[in-house]
């Protein structure tokens, strides 16, 4: 952190952050030098500050420049905006605009007219604004792609290419991903120029702080066993189902058995999604039943347990699911 300008060091001291995580240690120096960065690191390793800190330093030094952060989900975009605001102080603050689907578009028009220095966006809604000519990307000289593998999973590859075409050249591009499939290597060659390569840990194995247990059951035993787990464990619990209907059904069943539970999936309205996450984050609701939409981008520091009620589609999804616990050096199960 000693390479950072004083105002950012002061912000980190305020946040009780004295030691950089490995991904921050490796990504911040080339980021500060203005180099492109291609970083792979597991979820929960401090990736957000690994790109926000060099981005904030660059914007403070270059008042005529702006930045764009692209996120796969609304929740991750909102979380990134909150993390950036934690760095603000009397001497340093930036106008930001949150451009996400499911949110009031007129509110977004107003935010964009106010000339934000940082736009934090989901790809679909940003493409919408580009089409309406309501967003100005001419001054964007720093572009962050966060959770790039997730954006590919969600079918945003063409949107990402259209956004890249709308941005000025030269620019600094910081690409962060939990995994590095061939498609991302192709994108990296398209979007990045001689990037610094940062790789922290294995991208196909879970963090060491996560204890894994398996219970063999027949289908009819699943709900009773789940209730047993909920009744014998302390702390907040995230349960994964395969479908949104499965999430809704299980949350209703748990409520009938006296559990404080809510469902989170892609069909919920934006304000309801926000509310559900807030209840879970504050501890008002102890159990969150979610689809893989929630496997990335939910940063709730106190999740004690993750339960895979339904198996995930692929090994990478399993890694992301269980990466919701055991974050920031804490232990989870």
Query: Are there runs of 5+ residues with pLDDT below 50, and where?
Result: none
Beginning-to-end CA distance, first to last residue: 31 Å
Shape: globular
* Oligomer status: single chain
Structural class: alpha/beta
Summary tags:
11 strands; seven-stranded parallel beta sheet; alpha/beta; globular; 333 residues; four-stranded parallel beta sheet
Your description of this structure?
- By secondary structure, the chain is α/β, with parallel strands linked by helices.
- The protein has 13 helices and eleven strands.
- It has helices at 6-14, 22-32, 47-61, 74-85, 105-113, 123-132, 148-153, 157-166, 182-191, 222-232, 244-256, 270-282, 315-322; strands at 37-41, 66-70, 96-99, 118-121, 140-145, 172-177, 196-200, 236-240, 261-264, 287-290, 303-308.
- The strands form two sheets. A seven-stranded parallel sheet has the order 3-4-2-5-6-1-7.
- Helix 2 runs parallel beside helix 3 (47-61) and helix 6 (123-132) packs across helix 8 (157-166).
- The protein is globular, with a radius of gyration of 20 Å.
- The model has no long low-confidence stretch (mean pLDDT 90).
Topology (SSEs and partners):
Blueprint: H1 6-14, H2 22-32, E1 37-41, H3 47-61, E2 66-70, H4 74-85, E3 96-99, H5 105-113, E4 118-121, H6 123-132, E5 140-145, H7 148-153, H8 157-166, E6 172-177, H9 182-191, E7 196-200, H10 222-232, E8 236-240, H11 244-256, E9 261-264, H12 270-282, E10 287-290, E11 303-308, H13 315-322
Parallel strand pairs: 1-6, 1-7, 2-4, 2-5, 3-4, 5-6, 8-10, 8-11, 9-10
Helix pairs in contact: 2-3, 6-8
